[in-house]
């Protein structure tokens, strides 16, 4: 099937591509519930050597700059405790960690989690972290603009491959909280 965005001729419903996903993402797809059917989560194969934004967009379609989202892991500290969460923002923006995310997480301090922590705690590859399949107790802050996209390209948990999902599916993820202005102009 042809993907609804980008130049991907071979989009496959994610439940049919479980072997291409890392285990936490595959488990989340197997257990998927909610108003968006799992078959609407699409997997597309991508070349990990073309992951750089400029090359990726040239290869897979310029509209992907406007129809993709990034997921980053944030460490919030309050009262000596560190809590991890994820932030999902349109790819043309950056996460407002120090103000919007910090306040939403009710933390004294918030910062991007170290790479080893992000990879170790998610079970996903760096550069492929996705909001699907994150630990169940994590808050997942989703910029309202990402959730409003008809279709959004996100990571698959691996550097190879991406997921294309209805934006509204992001709002139904476990721990999801819609946040206005989470992504600020880059």
UniProtKB/TrEMBL annotation:
- Per the UniProt record, one Pfam family is tRNA_edit
> What would be an example GO MF term here?
aminoacyl-tRNA deacylase activity
Q: Which InterPro entries does this UniProt record tie to the protein?
A: YbaK/aa-tRNA-synt-asso_dom_sf (IPR036754), YbaK/aa-tRNA-synth-assoc-dom (IPR007214)
Query: So which domain of life are we looking at?
Result: Bacteria
So where does this one cross the membrane? none
Q: Where is the YbaK/aminoacyl-tRNA synthetase-associated domain?
A: 64-172
Task: Supply the name of the protein.
Answer: YbaK/aminoacyl-tRNA synthetase-associated domain-containing protein
């Amino acid at each position: 099937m042809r993907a609804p965005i980008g130049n991907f001729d071979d989009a496959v419903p994610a439940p049919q591509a479980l072997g291409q996903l890392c285990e936490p993402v595959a488990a989340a797809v197997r257990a998927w519930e909610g108003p968006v059917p799992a078959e609407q989560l699409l997997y597309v194969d991508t070349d990990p050597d073309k992951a750089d934004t400029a090359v990726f967009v040239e290869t897979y379609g310029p509209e992907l700059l406007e129809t993709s989202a990034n997921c980053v892991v944030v460490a919030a500290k309050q009262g000596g405790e560190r809590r991890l969460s994820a932030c999902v923002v349109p790819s043309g923006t950056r996460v407002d960690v120090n103000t919007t995310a910090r306040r939403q997480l009710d933390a004294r301090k918030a910062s991007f989690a170290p790479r080893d922590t992000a990879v170790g705690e998610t079970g996903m590859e760096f550069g492929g972290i996705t909001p699907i399949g994150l630990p169940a107790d994590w808050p997942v802050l989703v910029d309202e603009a990402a959730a409003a996209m008809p279709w959004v390209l996100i990571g698959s948990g691996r550097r190879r491959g991406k997921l294309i999902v209805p934006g509204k599916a992001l709002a139904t993820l476990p721990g999801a909280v819609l946040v206005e202005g989470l992504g600020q102009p880059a």
